[in-house]
Give the backbone structure.
Amino acid sequence: MHRSHPGVAECWPAGTARCYAAGMRDPHRGNDGPAIETSGLTKRYGAVTALADLDLAVPRGTIFGFLGPNGAGKTTTIRILMGFVKPSAGAARVLGHDAWKEGVAARRDLGYLVGADAFYTDMTGDAQLDYLAHLSGRSPALRRALLDVLELGPDALGRRIDAYSKGMRQKLALTAALQTDPALLILDEPTDGLDPLIQRAFEELLRSLRDRGRTIFMSSHDLAEVERTCERVGVVRSGRLLAEETVARLKRLHRRTAEVTFADGVPEGLSRVPAVTLLARQGRRVELALDGDVNPLLRFLATQEVSDLILAPARLEDVFMGFYGGEDIDVGRATDGRVLGNGLASPTAGGAPPPLGAVARR
């Protein structure tokens, strides 16, 4: 059990930071529109376009992963959503409010994961959490549960932050962002610096918050974590949105590989199976690429004598690398008009399939 936290009045003089908190009441949690919505969102820094015509809608009550390599536009998007920078064109709405023109209202019920260098390092962890809760004007209802999940104990909370390790600062930042139970969380690399067990426990906490109707918008380079946690993802590259879909649908659309060993040689009919491409062949073994539905291949194999079959499940990491594997990425649109990239760059330049093993698996 953690010790009871001192009241705000014990740490801060009366009237401190009350002007900002006064503008952050009345959270308006009943709004049914998207938690985050951008339209033609663009940000230019001189001749450099950091973000170009971003159209994005994040439904309430979901965990949304925002993916892309360094320089793709993720941080710029988050800074616009937080009202830190003004867009060059387009608009961003957070919880129904314009992120720039109605910044206080937009951030009224929002939790943001700050960088470790944003803390007052001469304060104790306890005092920092009390101060930030006081600024929000709301009760830190989730603090105790968060501290338990993140294993940030009383001894650590009683120490000055300048004595914290990277992992401890990350735990403190997560607690600060979530402690008032906001309707929307914007988390940039939330589990950076956490050990695997704490990471999994935190992921479970995020899922429980989602089940209670909260919305989590998270950027992460840990694609396995995103796959475990997020229902939907948006993929950006060079400031543009390549895809916005459910994780399950992206994985279904992605090119998978299969390795089949036939008992009596490779049958001629294999080349006519829909959505199947021969990548490599060696004796009775073949490596195949599957574009979409696996059932046509399985029905064909059911008519053959098969010695061995290796069919790896699609992973979000494979989908992501498909988007970034080359410059000839095919970007289309889903049936409802949303941007969709299939990431199906041709694995070979043409001609006969290379020997088995010469093609790197996607």
Residues 1-30, 326-362 have pLDDT under 50 and may be disordered. The CA atoms of residues 51 and 239 lie 4 Å apart. Residues 196-211 form the longest helix (16 residues). The radius of gyration is 25 Å.
